[in-house]
Design a protein that fits this description.
Belongs to the zinc-containing alcohol dehydrogenase family. Class-III subfamily. The chain is an alpha/beta fold and 384 residues long. It is built from twelve helices and 17 strands. The strands form three sheets. Strands 3, 4, 5, 8, 9, 16 and 17 form a seven-stranded mixed beta sheet that branches. It has a six-stranded parallel beta sheet with strand order 12-11-10-13-14-15, with helices on both faces. A four-stranded antiparallel beta sheet has the order 1-2-6-7, with no helix packed on it.
Amino acid sequence: MPLTDSAQNKQPGVITCKAAVAWGPGEPMVIEEVELSPPQPMEIRVKVVSTSLCRSDVTAWLSQAQASIYPRIFGHEASGIVESVGQGVTEFEEGDHVLTLFTGECMSCRHCTSGKSNICQVLGLERKGLMHSDQKTRFFIKGKPVYHYCAVSSFSEYTIVHSGCAVKVSPIAPLDKICLLSCGAAAGLGAAWKVANISEGSKVVIFGLGTVGLSVAQGAKMRGASQIIGVDVMQEKYEKAKAFGVTDFLNPNDTDEPIPQVIKRITDGGADYSFECIGDTGMVTTALQSCCDGWGLTVTLGVPKLKPEVTAHYGLLLMGRTLTGSLFGGWKPKSEIPSLVEMYLRKEIEIDDLITHNLPFEDINTAFDLMKNGACLRCVIHMP
C-alpha cells in the first residue's frame, strides 16, 4: 500500500532496541540495549524477523582471519520488514519484505555494468565495521559506537542497511526460510550454476558438506551431474547429503590413501569440477589436485579460518586445471536473488532441510556453540 503524504514526510528518529553485542573475540554475546540512528540518505531501517548463523560470522567472531573490531554486532544472513526509509530512497516503502545483502549492487559502477562481475565497487564487502556511505556506525551504547558486520548486523531487533544492500521479496515467501538465500544457500547454488556452469553428465567433488556444500550438491544434481562426491570428516552427514544429490561419500579419516588419489581412481582421472566449501586454504590445493587434467575447474567458496595464502604446484595449472573464487555464488544480488526466492516458492529448490535448528534470539550463544562445534547446518534465530 502506498504511503500517505503525512507518512512520507514523517522523519524517523533514534530508536532503542535489543542487540546481541560481542565485546571481544570469542566472548559470549551479550543482549544489550542499543540506540539505532535513523536511516541516512539512501539507507533503510529494517525490523529483523529471522536471521541465520553463517560460518563466516563465527570465523570473524573468533577473529581468526581478519582484524579484531569490537564491540560489534554480527549477523548478515537475514530477512525482515522495512520500518523506515532515508532521504532519496524510492524503491522501498515501509512494510516491504526484504532480504539483507552482505555485498550490494549499486547498478552503476564498472563492475555492476560489466555483466561480468558481482563485485560492486561502491557497495562491496565491508570489512571495517562501518557503513558504506559515511564510514560511521549507526549503533551506539550510551553514546559510544558499536561496530557493524558486513554493513548488515542482523543480530539485532532492528538494523540499518544501504538500500543497495537489500532486495525486496515476495510478501508470501516465509521469512524464516528464505533468509538462507541472503548468503549460504544462494552461494552454493550460484557456485554450481553461474561460476562453474556444471554440465550434464559431469563428475563433481565437494569438500565440506555444510549448508554451502549441500547447496552446491543440489545445484549439481539439478544440472544432471552423473557423480557427486562429498568429502567430510563427519560420517553422520552422509544421509542428509544423499537427499541433496551426493552419490558417493568419502571420509578422509577412513582411508590411508590421499583423497586426491581416491577421487582420481573412482572418477577415471579426476573430477570435472571440485568445490572447496570449508574455509581451509590447504584444502584448496587438495581440491585442485582432485580435478582432471585439461579442463578440471576448482571453485573455492570458504572464508579461511587461519592461513589466507593459497599454495599449489605450478604443474597443476600447467596441465590445464583452473582455480577460481566465488563470492555469493556470482549472483548480482539485487538483480538475481529474487529469482531464487521465486524458485523456492515454486518448490524447485530445497531450503527447509538445510535448517537444523530454530532458536529464540535470547539463545544466540547456543547457536554459536552449535556452529562452532559442527553440530548444525543452519540455525535460524527468531527475533521477538
